[in-house]
Write a structure and sequence with these properties.
heterodimer, A: about 240 residues, 5-stranded mixed beta sheet, 4-stranded antiparallel beta sheet, 7 helices, 11 strands, about 20% strand, globular, B: alpha/beta, Rossmann fold, 8 strands
Chain lengths: ~240, ~325
């Protein structure tokens, strides 16, 4: 399977593991069944390193450091510990930061509670977003609509939408770990609530049911060089005819 | 519905895990939606999973000795005791974790069986496991007959369908009884999570499996798996047939979370069942009168379901 690729061998919690060179620690550890909490990592996207939950202790040449496993490339001979006293402390702190950032989020609160963190001492932000940036990365790397930008750094970090560019595909709705991006459909209009983007939907020529935003369909027709009437029918009527 | 999972389409699909736990090379028929459903299910339950798999199509095509398609450990069990074995695995894992023989972690125990193994032969074992409250997921892949032995009717075969043991002829028009409502039977056990799903709606299916695995206590998922061989339909239409089953109201997608009913896809109006029947050979003999009878029943059942949603709504 890994015949022509370089394989790296190392240890996670005293278990011998192997992985392809260039992979990050987190996906390897998860694949071997080790539990490492994470919120801003997705295998289809570049690593974010924003939530700070995936920290592990990495021992290399006798020196031990705390590192984020989503951004740490695997190396020959390293020793990784996923659950030490120090790691538990760092993770606790990370949960406190997340609780403060998304003080309104029920999802984050229950996750933090499950991890043993109930309250935060930090100043609370009135929001339900943890600023993980997954929505921005998925819009840029997968969809290619570039409708979201992350501005500023540190505690002034913000996700800024460009409603003109949003095609209301819902990829950010799907990926958001706190469910703070909501999609609504009323009649023949679809709204992505958080980005304040409302688009009219294409009605199926045959059954009359709206099935996707016209703006999105035209965007796809443009990108893929399809004929103008390619999306006249909804997926079901297209197959029936 | 929170996420409009049936509307996500083309970009969200690329966010689905590319790791396979149910790998290709198995011997399922062309267009088998059951194989697809198993693949999606295993993607959602991921690596820390133990499977208990009853006799049935899945077991026959995915693990003929000495081959296997499974990348997660599993036990092949007899027809009737999937739920019993799954609950045994769960109790066993609990015991060896308590004794410190393996580290404490979340391991999903998933029992999988066909409609025969669930609603006919395995019903009492399932009922027992649900009642005892084991922390496990039971998934029924319903292709509406005993397909791997040659399309014999089961209690899950819909009214009017022609099978080899309920053949349509001059006197008897195929299956003469209505389909057993398995999800309702499971829900009647008052378990924390019951859902219906269909691989034609992959995001919805995966979300339900993930939810079922996360919830503490028993969960039951009923998956309609279109079978082109047994339903007498061209293999390229199996996804389409699944969508029609949902959109005609024949197989509505819903979940019951702690007693609260919720429609996963709320259809403003149902398509006529004839659209669903027309593409399948097993319903070819149906007269207009019978179709109307089925249509009435489908409408009634859907209204009943909607009432349950209304009655159990929060707040």
């Amino acid at each position: 399977m890994m015949a022509d690729k370089e394989v790296v061998r190392f240890k996670i919690n005293d278990t011998e593991v192997e992985a392809e060179k260039g992979m990050m620690l987190l996906p390897v550890a998860l694949e071997y069944g080790f539990e490492i909490p994470h919120l801003c990592y997705h295998e289809a996207l570049s690593p974010g390193g924003m939530c700070g939950l995936c920290v592990v202790e990495v021992t290399k040449e006798g020196r031990t450091r705390v590192a984020m496993s989503c951004k740490y490339p695997v190396e020959e001979g390293i020793k990784v510990a996923t659950d030490t006293e120090k790691i538990r402390q760092v993770r606790k702190r990370a949960w406190e930061v997340l609780l403060a950032r998304a003080s309104r989020s029920e999802v984050i609160r229950s996750m933090a509670q499950a991890a043993g963190v109930k309250e935060t001492t930090l100043e609370k932000r009135d929001d339900d977003c943890i600023l993980c940036g997954l929505c921005e990365r998925v819009c840029r790397e997968i969809v290619g609509a570039n409708a979201l930008t992350i501005t500023r750094k540190g505690d002034r970090r913000e996700v800024v939408p460009n409603p003109e560019a949003c095609i209301a595909c819902g990829a950010c709705v799907y990926i958001c770990p706190t469910d703070c991006i909501k999609m609504e459909e009323k009649g023949d209009e679809r709204t992505i609530v958080r980005w304040n983007r409302t688009l009219k939907m294409q009605k199926c020529k045959s059954c009359g049911r709206p099935f996707a935003p016209i703006f999105q369909l035209n965007w796809i027709i443009d990108k893929a060089n399809l004929s103008k009437d390619f999306y006249e029918l909804c997926p079901i009527c297209r197959k029936s005819s | 519905m929170d996420k409009y999972l049936d509307r996500l389409g083309i970009y969200a699909a690329r966010l689905v895990s590319q790791k396979e736990y149910f790998v290709p090379g198995h011997r399922a028929c062309q267009g088998c939606a059951e194989a697809l459903a198993v693949r999606l299910m295993s993607k959602a339950s991921r690596t820390n999973t133990v499977i208990a798999c009853a006799t049935g199509c899945i077991e026959i095509f995915s693990s003929p000795f000495p081959l296997t398609s499974w990348m997660v450990p599993g036990i092949h069990v007899a027809f009737e005791n999937t739920a019993a074995v799954a609950s045994g695995i769960e109790s066993g894992l609990k015991a060896i974790m308590r004794k410190g023989r393996i580290p404490l972690k979340k391991i999903n125990v998933v029992g999988i069986a066909g409609d025969g193994g669930t609603s006919d032969i395995g019903l009492q074992a399932l009922s027992g496991a649900l009642e005892r409250g084991h922390n496990m997921v039971y998934v029924c892949f319903d292709n509406e007959a005993y397909m791997n032995t040659g399309i014999q009717r089961s209690s899950s075969t819909p009214f009017g369908a022609s099978t080899t043991t309920s053949p349509a002829g001059k006197v008897v028009p195929g299956q003469t009884t209505w389909k057993k409502n398995m999800p309702e039977i499971a829900a009647a056990h008052d378990i924390p999570y019951v859902a219906t799903a269909c691989p034609s709606y992959p995001f919805d299916l995966m979300e339900k499996v993930r939810k079922a695995a996360e919830i503490e206590g028993p969960a039951y998922i009923h998956i309609l798996s279109v079978c082109p061989t047994g339903w007498r339909l061209p293999p390229e239409l199996s996804i389409h047939a699944g969508r029609l089953a949902v959109e005609t109201g024949v197989f509505p997608l819903y979940e019951v979370e702690r007693g609260r009913y919720k429609l996963s896809i709320d259809l403003p109006e149902l398509r006529p069942v004839q659209e669903y029947f027309r593409i399948q050979g097993r319903f070819r003999h149906l007269t207009e009168e019978m179709v109307n009878k089925i249509q009435r029943r489908v409408r009634e059942e859907y209204e009943k379901l909607k009432k349950k949603v209304m009655m159990t709504r929060e707040g």
